[in-house]
C-alpha cells in the first residue's frame, strides 16, 4: 500500500498499533480522502503482535481474543476502508505546521504534509536506569516487553531461572509465558503495597503456577559480573526505605523489569505539543486534540491504558476529529472547561472539554485512583459547588482505569461550570 | 464443613473479588459478583477448572520463525503442560492464515489449537 506515495495527505497517523489503526480507519470513514499510517516496524499491528495471550477485545467484541487476532481485525479494517501505509519507516520530525520528515526502506528520506496529524506512537518501558538499581551491569537484565518479543516472535528464551521485578500485567504474563516454555520463576517482587496489574492476571499467571509474589519488596542490588547470578531483595517500609534484616539473596540468571510504561512523546515535543507531567502524555481536549491545532494524539501516547479496547475507542475519536479538522468542520472558538483531579484521583483525561461536543456525542472522562479502594465507591463530577454527574463502582484500583461518561443531558451544567473536578469517594 | 474463601473471577478484566462458600465441590453461596458469569466461573473452578492456553508453534519459511496459537476454548487446568508438550513438537509451513487449525483436538477434549494471525511466506 506504499507504492504511490503522495506529498500531501488529509490525515497522517504516526504509529500503526491499535491506537493508530483505529484513528486511520476512523479518519477515512469520516470523510478524509487520503489517510496515511507510518510505522517503524515491518508490519502493522504494533505491540499487539507480541501479546499472544488471550484477554483482548472483551469490551468491544465481547470475545476473549489473543493480541494478534485483535490486531488483525483492525488491520483488515484499515485495508478494507482504503488507508495507505508506509512501513519500516522512522519519522524523524514533525513540525507545528504539520510537516513530517521520515526515512525508510521503500522511499528513502521523505517530506510529507498533512492537514491533520494523529500521534499514535504508544509507550515504552521504564528501564533499569530509570529505577536506579545499584550494582554491576551484567547481561541478563531486560525489560519484560523486550523478553516478550524474543520469546513470542523471534523464538529465543533469555534464561532458565527468572526473577521479575514489578507486578504489572506484562511482568505477570511473562512469568506464565516462560513457565510454559520450561523456565522457573523464583519470585515476583512488587515495591508497592498492592498489585499494579489486573487481578485476573494474578490468578491465571501467578497463583495457577505457584509463582510467589512479594508486595512491598524490591531489588536492592544486582549480583554478577558477566551474567547476573542473583538479586538481593529487600522489604521496604512506608517511606520506601529498606528494612534492615529483610534482605534475601535470590539466585537467578535473568531479571525482568515490569516497572511501568512511559508515553513516547519525543516527536510530539518537537511539534510543540505541551505534556502533562502526571500522565507523561499531551494535554488533550475531548477530541484528543493537543495544544497545537491540527495535532491529535491517540492511545498510550496520551496516557497508559490497561485495556486495548479503550485504546481503540480513543483512536476512533481522535481519527474522527482529525478528519473533521482536515475538512474544516470543527468548533473554531471552543469555550473549554478544564477537568481536575479531586479526592483520590491521580489524573483525568481529557484535561479539558468543549461543552458543545455534548450536543452531538458523549464524552468519557478517564482517570486513575491514587490508592486501592476495595469497597463500593462513587465516581463524581463536581463543578466546585454542585454535583454534575455520578456513577457507582464496586471498587477502584490503581491498576485499572476508572471512567465516567458525560451525556447530552449534562450540557447545561457543564457549560456553566468553571471546572469539572472528578472525585472517587467511598460510598 | 462449609468453607468461605475469597476468589477472584477471571472471566473479564473487571476481576471481581468473590466471597465463595462451598463444601468440597458443592457451591453453597457466592457474593460479590457483578454478573452471572461470576457464579458460573466459581462452579467450574470448584469442579473442573479450565484455562485458555496461548503459546507459539514453529513455522518453516515464514516472516517469523514462530506463529502464535491458542486453544479455541478453555482446557482442563491440570492438562496444560501435557498440551504444551504436544504443541512444542508441531511444526507447520508458511503461509499461515488466522484461525487455521494447527493441531486438531490434541487432548481429546474437542478443543482445537488455532493460529491467531496471518503469517506470510518469505
Characterization of this structure:
The complex is a heterodimer of chains A (427) and B (122). By secondary structure, chain A is α/β, with parallel strands linked by helices. In chain A, the strands form 6 sheets. In chain A, strands 1, 2, 3, 4, 5, 6 and 17 form a 7-stranded mixed beta sheet that branches. Chain A contains 9 helices and 25 strands. In chain A, β12 (217-223) and β13 (230-235) form a beta hairpin. In chain A, 51% of the residues are buried. Chain A has helices at 18-29, 67-81, 128-131, 144-154, 169-180, 199-206, 266-270, 308-326, 411-416, and strands at residues 8-14, 35-38, 84-86, 89-94, 99-104, 108-119, 123-125, 141-143, 161-165, 184-190, 213-215, 217-223, 230-235, 248-251, 254-257, 261-263, 295-297, 337-341, 345-349, 352-353, 363-369, 377-382, 387-393, 402-406, 420-426. With 122 residues, chain B is of the alpha+beta class. Chain B is built from 2 helices and 10 strands. Chain B has helices at residues 37-47, 80-89; strands at residues 3-8, 17-23, 26-31, 50-51, 54-60, 66-71, 75-76, 91-93, 101-103, 113-115. In chain B, strands 8-5-6-10-9 form a 5-stranded mixed beta sheet. Chain B has a 3-stranded antiparallel beta sheet with strand order 1-2-3, with helices on one face. In chain B, a hairpin with a 5-residue loop joins β5 and β6. The N and C termini of chain B lie far apart (62 Å).
Short recap of the structure:
Chain A has 427 residues and is an alpha/beta fold.
Which terms summarize this structure?
heterodimer, A: 427 residues, alpha/beta, FAD/NAD(P)-binding domain, Immunoglobulin-like, 3 domains, seven-stranded mixed β-sheet, five-stranded parallel β-sheet, 9 helices, 25 strands, 22% helix, 30% strand, B: 122 residues, alpha+beta, N-terminal domain of TfIIb, CPE0013-like fold, 2 domains, five-stranded mixed β-sheet, three-stranded antiparallel β-sheet, 2 helices, 10 strands
Amino acid at each position: 500500500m506504499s507504492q504511490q506515495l503522495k506529498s500531501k495527505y488529509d490525515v497522517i497517523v504516526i504509529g500503526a498499533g491499535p491506537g493508530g489503526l483505529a484513528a486511520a480507519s476512523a479518519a477515512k470513514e469520516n470523510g478524509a480522502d487520503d489517510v496515511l499510517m507510518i510505522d517503524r516496524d515491518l508490519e502493522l499491528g504494533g505491540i499487539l503482535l507480541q501479546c499472544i495471550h488471550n484477554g483482548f477485545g472483551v469490551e468491544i467484541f465481547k470475545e476473549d481474543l489473543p493480541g494478534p487476532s485483535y490486531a488483525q481485525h483492525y488491520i483488515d479494517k484499515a485495508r478494507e476502508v482504503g488507508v495507505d501505509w508506509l512501513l519500516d519507516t522512522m519519522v524523524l520530525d514533525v513540525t507545528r505546521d504539520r510537516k513530517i520528515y521520515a526515512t525508510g526502506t521503500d522511499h528513502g528520506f521523505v517530506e510529507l504534509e498533512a492537514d491533520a496529524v494523529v500521534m499514535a506512537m504508544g509507550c515504552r518501558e521504564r528501564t533499569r536506569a530509570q529505577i536506579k538499581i545499584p550494582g554491576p551491569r551484567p547481561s541478563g537484565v531486560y525489560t519484560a516487553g523486550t523478553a516478550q518479543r524474543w520469546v513470542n516472535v523471534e523464538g529465543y528464551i533469555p534464561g532458565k531461572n527468572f526473577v521479575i521485578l514489578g507486578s504489572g500485567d506484562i511482568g505477570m504474563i511473562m512469568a506464565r509465558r516462560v513457565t510454559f516454555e520450561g523456565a522457573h520463576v523464583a519470585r515476583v517482587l512488587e515495591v508497592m503495597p498492592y498489585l499494579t496489574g489486573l487481578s485476573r492476571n494474578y490468578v491465571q499467571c501467578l497463583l495457577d503456577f505457584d509463582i510467589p509474589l512479594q508486595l512491598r519488596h524490591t531489588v536492592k542490588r544486582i549480583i554478577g559480573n558477566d551474567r547476573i547470578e542473583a538479586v538481593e531483595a529487600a522489604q521496604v517500609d512506608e517511606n520506601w526505605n529498606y528494612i534492615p534484616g529483610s534482605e534475601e539473596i535470590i539466585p537467578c540468571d535473568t531479571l525482568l523489569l515490569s516497572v511501568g510504561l512511559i508515553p513516547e512523546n519525543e516527536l510530539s515535543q518537537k511539534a510543540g505539543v505541551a505534556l502533562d507531567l502526571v500522565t507523561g502524555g499531551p494535554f488533550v481536549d475531548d477530541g484528543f486534540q493537543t495544544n497545537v491545532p491540527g495535532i491529535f494524539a491517540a492511545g498510550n501516547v496520551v496516557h497508559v491504558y490497561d485495556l486495548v479496547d479503550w485504546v481503540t475507542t480513543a483512536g476512533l475519536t481522535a481519527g474522527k476529529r482529525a478528519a473533521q479538522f482536515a475538512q474544516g468542520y470543527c468548533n473554531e472558538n471552543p469555550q473549554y472547561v478544564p477537568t481536575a483531579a479531586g479526592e483520590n484521583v491521580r489524573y483525568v483525561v481529557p484535561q479539558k472539554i468543549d461543552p458543545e461536543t455534548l450536543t452531538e456525542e458523549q464524552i468519557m472522562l478517564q482517570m486513575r485512583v491514587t490508592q486501592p479502594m476495595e469497597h463500593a465507591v462513587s465516581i463524581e463530577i463536581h463543578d466546585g459547588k454542585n454535583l454534575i454527574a455520578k456513577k457507582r463502582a464496586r471498587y477502584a484500583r490503581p491498576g485499572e482505569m476508572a471512567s465516567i461518561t458525560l451525556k447530552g443531558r449534562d450540557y447545561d451544567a457543564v457549560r456553566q461550570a468553571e471546572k469539572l473536578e472528578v472525585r472517587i469517594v467511598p460510598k | 464443613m462449609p468453607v468461605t474463601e475469597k476468589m477472584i473471577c477471571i472471566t473479564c478484566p473487571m476481576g471481581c473479588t468473590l466471597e465463595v462458600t462451598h463444601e468440597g465441590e458443592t457451591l453453597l453461596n457466592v457474593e460479590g459478583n457483578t454478573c452471572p458469569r461470576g457464579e458460573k466461573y466459581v462452579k467450574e473452578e470448584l469442579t473442573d477448572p479450565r484455562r485458555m492456553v496461548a503459546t507459539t508453534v514453529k513455522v518453516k519459511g515464514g516472516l517469523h520463525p514462530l506463529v502464535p496459537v491458542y486453544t479455541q476454548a478453555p482446557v482442563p487446568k491440570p492438562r496444560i503442560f501435557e498440551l504444551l508438550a504436544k504443541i512444542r513438537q508441531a511444526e507447520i509451513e508458511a503461509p499461515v492464515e488466522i484461525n487455521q487449525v494447527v493441531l486438531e483436538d490434541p487432548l481429546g477434549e474437542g478443543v482445537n489449537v488455532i493460529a491467531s494471525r496471518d503469517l506470510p511466506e518469505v
